[in-house]
Amino acid sequence: MALAVEPSSKMGLNGYVGFDTITQQIEKKLLKRGFQFNVMVVGQSGLGKSTLVNTIFAAHLIDSKARTDVSEPPRQTTEIQNASHIIEENGVHLKLNIVDTPGYGDQVNNENCWEPIIKYIKDQHSAYLRKELTAMRDRYIQDTRIHCCLFFISPTGHALKPIDIAVLKKLSEVVNVVPVIAKSDSLTMEERLSFKQRIKEELAFHNIRMYPYESEEDDEQEQALNESIRSGTLIPVSVRPIVRKQDLIPFAIVGSERNVVIDGKAVRGRRNRWGVINVENENHCEFVHLRNFLTRTHLQDLIETTAQIHYEAFRSKQLLALKESSQSAASGPTPASPASPTPKIGY
To answer: Known Pfam families for this protein (predicted)?
Structure first.
């Protein structure tokens, strides 16, 4: 007979107990261990993927993988290359793993060029699940699951390419995708706005969900912030003063590791014959909004969403397959067909 459990009631305290310091205790342990963030960049060569990552984290973390020598043979397949760094800011250590995908979309025939990318993302889920199911597993499992995928869109000003739509459909099923319009300074402001609107319409038409997702667990402020990012609606200043009324997704960005001087002040930007583009000027591009989005407002949510949505979907699918396989093995093979082998963990 099950015992009835009375609902908890909120009680006042007659004196100070001290359990409010639990947040400080958690913070101390987390700071000691450090944090892990894995980001993947996907896009054709020459769109400034390496430059943008270096600009976001204010350090030269990865080199460009584009062909710079005419004698260098073109890549025949999409490659996967990792670069890991530990960066520190105000006592917080971040283990940053950057996954680049040189060769994607650069061939004459780009059929299935996205398969190595999808396979890599799924392989990280498989590796994490195997470590979870190990009898003598590590206390802290090394997390190589991709938390964020920056998808670079070529600034054509027209519409998404068919390959972009196909890849975005595949990626959105397994990872948090954040689309960006690369080198947006090649578009006028009017072209940029119409291009962004066309992209949003195409994503909606093909039912492609971009991050951040709608969640009932978000409080009012989080819902307002995410809605402003998704649709560009103006949110109250008391909630988030850094976001103004505009369509943020896809982010129209410009990256630069070089400093240029404006009015005697060195800023990161690009100089051309018409003037200087300051990448941190909100009137020039949306780099600041992207950086704030990735590091200051949604970094932890990207990590949690990966674990609670994408990895959990994979984990459930695999464990159900293992359960069905075990039941089939226990019942024995039928005369008409041999016993099925135990499935391996993976997609």
So the answer is: Septin
